[in-house]
Specification:
With 398 residues, this protein is α/β, with parallel strands linked by helices. The protein contains 13 helices and 17 strands. The protein has two domains: 149 residues, Alpha-Beta Complex (Aspartate Aminotransferase, domain 1); 240 residues, Type I PLP-dependent aspartate aminotransferase-like (Major domain) (Aspartate Aminotransferase, domain 2, 3-Layer(aba) Sandwich), CATH 3.40.640. A seven-stranded mixed β-sheet has the order 4-12-11-10-7-5-6, with helices on both faces. Strands 1-2-3-15 form a four-stranded mixed β-sheet. A hairpin with a 2-residue loop joins strand 13 and strand 14. It is globular. The structure holds pyridoxal-5'-phosphate.
């Protein structure tokens, strides 16, 4: 064992992190160990749907932790049964498998589709996914992703993923063969910079997949659990997919994810799927608390209203600073910067005590807590306005 030269050195250096160490969070606010306060519009990448350390999640975790942590995934436990039932009651799906991360849920969706192909489609196993799509960081989910930066990594990739273009039905049709079993997409491509599939495209995709007997898989890890103003994004398009994955917001800050399937698509047999911590009562208790709060009609309505307010405020900033479009839905929005200055804006905002995210060099993405207030939006917009004003010359140089 070697002694790390600096406490930071003991962690694998997998991404560029600012040197602050965060010690506390409450709602839309975070504090570092020097006592500096930050207004957080990243929220753990759209994870903390009720903000940092919401009381209802903390209480659910505390109560469940005293009662039962992990009986074994081979036994039933009450919170996972309750949460599965609640998700089935609130969606078009019939069965749920719980996972610990979004990538693991998507890995399960890919396995489920391949199983369906083996059982019902003569071994068809190819899944059509989309350029720009992001489905996670396991080998199969990186292979399913259409992220350019992933292309040279960890070869050879898992075979069986063919990439179509978002909102281009012809590009999907052109990839369908007798080996195809499913089409998989994010209703809004989040990591790619918040690029929505149109409702019409989702409807056309549903019709096309039905016509060819293919499964339609929606990756709602970022868009699900109220993020876009409906509990699940697919509801906007009025379609019923065969398979859906959830992650991020479903745990309100703790690691929980889910794979949901309609009865015909839910075809795992004993031995096909499992996992030590899957469906553990502690995380499912948190999920239940989140779903109870976020799933209410009033709360979902408030997301739509606050989302419109954020959108109009961003639009105002864009006009003032000569920036591009505001896109997205609900509280998953992006501001087009027109220039590759995203990283610089994020770094300057950090100094101001404002946490922003730039998923692509020319875009900022906003994914605040779903209960963010108008005052907090106002404070964020003021901070970003100051940063944009200051970087006026930087923009010309960039
Ligand atoms: C974040 C994300 C994932 C991966 O989830 P992890 O919990 O990081 O494994 C997959 N798909 C989408 C759309 C995501 O936003």
């Amino acid at each position: 064992m070697t002694t790390a030269a600096h406490p930071y050195d003991a962690l694998m250096d997998i991404t560029a992190r600012p040197p602050a160490v965060f010690v506390r969070g409450e709602g839309s606010w975070l504090w570092d160990d020097a006592g500096k306060r930050y207004l957080d519009f990243v929220q753990g990448w759209a994870v903390n749907c009720l903000g940092h350390s919401p009381a209802i999640v903390a209480e659910a975790l505390a109560a469940q932790s005293k009662r039962l942590l992990t009986p074994s995934p081979a036994f039933y436990n009450a919170p996972s049964l309750k949460l599965a039932k609640a998700l089935v009651d609130r969606s078009c799906f019939d069965q749920v498998f719980f996972a610990n991360s979004g990538a693991e849920a998507n890995e399960g969706a890919i396995k489920l589709a391949r199983k369906y192909g083996a059982l019902h489609k003569n071994g068809a196993h190819e899944i059509i996914t989309f350029a720009g799509g992001f489905h996670g960081r396991t080998l199969a989910t990186m292979s399913a992703s259409g992220k350019k930066a992933f292309e040279p990594l960890f070869e050879p990739k898992v075979p069986g993923f063919r990439k179509a273009r978002l909102n281009d039905l012809t590009s999907v049709e052109g990839l369908i063969t007798c080996k195809t079993v499913a089409v998989m997409l994010e209703p809004i491509q989040g990591e790619a910079g918040v690029w929505p599939a149109t409702d019409r495209f989702l409807q056309a995709l549903r019709a096309l997949t039905r016509q060819h007997g293919l499964l339609l898989i929606v990756d709602e890890i970022q868009t699900g659990i109220g993020r876009t103003g409906k509990l699940f994004h697919y509801e906007h398009a009025g379609i019923e997919p065969d398979i859906m994955t959830l992650g991020k917001g479903i745990g309100g800050g703790v690691p929980l994810a889910a794979l949901l399937a309609s009865e015909p698509a839910s075809c795992f047999e004993h031995g096909d799927q499992g996992g030590t911590f899957n469906g553990n009562p502690l995380m499912c208790a948190a999920g239940l608390a989140v779903l109870e709060r976020v799933g209410s009609a009033e709360f979902l309505q408030s997301i739509t209203e606050v989302g419109r307010y954020l959108e109009s405020e961003l639009q105002r900033l864009s006009t003032r600073h000569g920036l591009g479009e505001v896109r997205g839905r609900g509280l998953l929005l992006a501001l087009d910067l027109k220039l590759p200055i995203g990283a610089s804006i994020v770094a300057q905002a950090f100094e101001e005590g404002l946490l922003l995210n730039s998923p692509q060099p020319d875009a900022l993405r906003f994914m605040p807590a779903l209960n963010v207030t108008r005052d907090e939006i106002g404070a964020m917009v003021d901070g970003l306005d100051r940063v944009l004003k200051r970087s006026g010359t930087a923009r010309l140089v960039a």
